[in-house]
Amino acid sequence: MAFTMHSHSGQFCPSHAKDQLEDVILHAIKLGFKTMGLSEHMPRTQLCDLYPDEIDSDPNGALAALAPRHTAYLAEARRLQAKYAGRSSCWSEGLQANYYDEQLVMLEMLRPRVVGHFDLIRLLGEDPGRDVSKWSPDVVWSRARRNLAFVARYGGWLECNTSALRKGLEEPYPSRPIAEEWLRLGGKFTFSDDSHGIAQLATNYTRGLDYLESLGVTELWTFERRVGEDASKAEIVDKCVRISDFRASLRSGDAVKA
Fold it and tell me: Where do the PHP domain residues begin and end (predicted)?
């Protein structure tokens, strides 16, 4: 959880800071901060406590401005605290909405047979394990369902991707609510480790298969190259593989380690 506990703004610390307090807070939200300590300087009561640049200008005027400026700061800080409470969640919601909108553009242009890590955006969320159908039903969930329906209509497959487990998430891609919606639409799953080297091949396959079976899935889909009498005219066809057969074909327990 990103945060800062010590910050200033040019609005209330004009002698050596910059920018309006609200702009500072908005930028912190953009950076993913969940907590921000607002710590403008306390008001001073003696000329000897002023900063050099305050003394060089109008020391008495600078001193007189400190107390009312601090009062205004407290009021503005409370106003902004109320205004942006939970704003990080709103930012996350907007980010995920944009993700699914951009995903739809890609789906419409390419119509890929296999849609990889459908909800990859979950990896960047503040709470990757939450139920998106309940957290944001009207903004994020509606878009995810729209995209799933589009893929189902043109006959694409969703990938159950175990790399999410390798990266610390509790469920593969896609999460359970999305997987359940996909199955409700009659969608088919394929299976992937998203490996980036030998060490990651088949990582978390046992957990991924257990997850699919907990959803009621009994078979996976892959492609098979079939060669007829003319070897130069092979074709790629869909092939169904039962999960039980998939498990039995794995040759080493090391291949399914977490």
Answer: 5-51
Q: Is 239 helix (H, G, I), strand (E, B) or coil?
A: strand
Q: From the CB of residue 99, how many other CB atoms can be counted at a distance below 10 Å?
A: 19
Range of the domain at 60: 2-83
Q: Which of 69, 24, 19 is nearest to 44 (CA)?
A: 69
Q: What is the pTM of this model?
A: 0.67
Tokens 């942006």: give the residue.
Answer: 84
Q: Which of 26-30, 114-118, 225-229 has the highest mean pLDDT?
A: 114-118
Task: Provide the residue count of the chain.
Answer: 258
DSSP-derived secondary structure letter, 233: G
Beta strand segments in the chain, E: 2-4, 33-36, 114-115, 157-161, 188-192, 219-226, 235-242
Looking at the structure, do residues 79 and 21 belong to the same domain, yes or no?
yes
Same domain membership, residue 196 and residue 91: yes
C-beta of residue 3 within 8 angstroms of C-beta of residue 33: yes
